[in-house]
Write a structure and sequence with these properties.
- This is DUF6735 family protein.
- It holds the Pfam family DUF6735.
- InterPro entries: DUF6735 (IPR046622).
- About 25% of the residues lie in helices and about 20% in strands.
- The chain contains six helices and eleven strands.
- A hairpin with a 5-residue loop joins strand 1 and strand 2.
- The two termini are about 30 Å apart.
- The C terminus is likely disordered.
């Protein structure tokens, strides 16, 4: 079944190419396998072809041109598929229109200087937690949370996922008992998730709404819900690179 992830590589124009990894979400270790020397991961520690391909993608090479680029030569396998699923996307478009929060277990953002930020995906759908919810959207319906790292290992990743699953179970019961409406259930889920994440990690939730007028950052439709400010509004932040 794999541990599926999406990987967004920043281009020179500030947009992104979007790639798929079938095993990249396992323990979020892909964060440490992507580097300037091996941009798509894998055992080849000096992937000249991969570096050249990524450089051309960063300059605007379209996905349709990659097949011809890769044809005619055997190349080592990589953890991330070299051919992008899409090109010329913003991060807003990726998290709202391409990221499947149920089937993609992780999301990685790679800067032009190969700073890699790892996000764990948390699906907000309640169809398995409530008898009154028939179906929940999977694309664009969830949250992204960074994890803490210690000595190259993610800390508390499984604990957060377990807490989120338990939270959804409680909210599902409240929906079935009529305590929550679908709208109040979503708001409660966001608020309690923010409390569990706290200020040591970053929590990002796509809204699908127009950019906030006061936002001065490019990632304008990503809301970082800060637990102490949930009821006063949303704080707009750019994705921070995990250490």
């Amino acid at each position: 079944m794999g541990h599926r992830a999406l990987v967004a590589y920043e281009r020179t124009d500030g947009q992104y190419t979007l790639h798929y990894s079938h095993w990249g979400a396992a323990n979020l270790k892909l964060k440490h396998r992507i580097s300037a020397e091996s941009p798509f991961g894998g055992d080849d520690t000096d992937s000249k072809w991969a570096k050249q391909l990524l450089a051309e993608l960063a300059d605007g090479l379209e996905a349709d041109a990659v097949d011809a680029y890769l044809a005619g030569e055997d190349r080592p396998s990589t953890v991330v598929e070299p051919k992008p699923r899409a090109t010329g996307l913003t991060l807003d478009e990726i998290v709202a229109d391409h990221l499947d929060y149920l089937h993609h277990e992780a999301f990685f953002v790679v800067s032009t200087t190969f700073e890699v930020t790892a996000y764990r995906t948390l699906w907000s759908g309640l169809q398995y937690d409530s008898e009154t919810v028939e179906q929940g959207e999977t694309v664009g319906n969830g949250a992204l949370a960074t994890v803490r790292w210690y000595d190259g290992e993610p800390v508390g990743d499984g604990h957060l996922q377990g807490q989120f699953a338990a939270l959804k179970d409680v909210i599902g019961d409240m929906l079935d008992k009529g305590v929550f409406t679908p709208s109040t259930a979503r708001q409660y889920l966001k608020r309690k998730l923010a409390e569990r994440v706290g200020d040591r990690q970053e929590l990002l939730i796509p809204t699908g709404e127009s950019p906030f007028e006061k936002a001065s950052l490019n990632h304008s439709c990503w809301i970082c819900y800060v637990a102490t400010a949930v009821f006063q509004g949303s704080e707009w932040v750019s994705p921070a690179v995990g250490s």
